[in-house]
Amino acid sequence: MRRIAGFAWLLSLMLLQYSCGNDSHSSPAAVMLSSDIINKAERLNINASDSCTIVTLLDPWQGADGVQINYYLVKRGSRPVSVDDTSRIIYVPVRKIICMSTTHLAMITALGEEKSVAGVSGKAFVYNENLLDMIDKGLIEDVGYESTLNSELILKIKPDLVMMYGVGGESSGYSGKIEELGIKTMLNADFLENDPLGKAEWIKLFGALYCKEYEADSIYRSVSGSYNSIKDYILQETRRRPKVLAGLPFRDTWYVSPGNSHLSSFIRDAGGEYLWEGTVASAAMPMGLESVYIRSLEADYWINIGSVVSKDEIPAVDARLSTLPVFKSGNLFNNNKRITENGGNDYWESGVLNPQLILKDLSSILHPELFKDHELLYYRKLN
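-> structure tokens emitted (383 positions)
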């Protein structure tokens, strides 16, 4: 069975690369040649027809229901494909791209294509030193944020593609402004994936955009292999599941990640029990501080505590938090060890592509007896 599965995977990749170069047909509606390229991601499909690679996004923004968007990746120099919406045709490999999220930067960099990055949305959010250097040298422009996009600068850059993310509506309305300039856009919904490996698997989208499918798949296989090895080890070696609190209130409201979230998956795979593990929701759940406080009395560990860098900052948010047993125990760990002076956090950049490293951090926090020599990478203990 493994040999058959391996052959199917190899054939799929071969067909994807074949589709990047074949110009004998013009309709992407022809017989689909490959599937099953995506394993964990729920919002992404990649298939090859005999004329192009078809990328399908499923419900690519918060609140979307039954939405499906197709993009058609066509090798440069190939015969044009016939589709109803030509704005969805993207010529590959992409040579110049603007990224509206730092997650996109990490995946592009992993494929060795950072020189194709021509613009970012907010220098302050970037962590990668090489990219920051390119920004300082004027090789990468800061095009602003959704509501304050610099349209003139984007037009001057003339990117092949602007990679965006949808928060409300298709992309908060700003995709239309860019498309009016005659520039291609593509949504990216990696941030909506609930499985850590599902998020990481979006590197396969960039593999298709740069015609580096083999490289992207190799990276993902290495990541998933390491992740599952740590997960299996934890499952075999532990019986105790310490209870975990996460987050920090904003004023009197605590936006709690549900039990089917990306964060909950990490905690479970690291051998912990998330306090809201049994809940299901499509977004963070707003709860009153009082109700969260009562539940938090059970917590053994407290992680992902906003932007604080010391234990003393927590009571300043609300004095009652300092009376929690978990606060007094000192088991406080935040995911902001790798940050720039401007606030760029590598947890949200390279961490998305490296969930195995985040899992190793969390596993060593919750079960230090199993990882005595591990030095935290993305997390720090708050003192």
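The domain at 238-381 is CATH 3.40.50.1980 (Rossmann fold).
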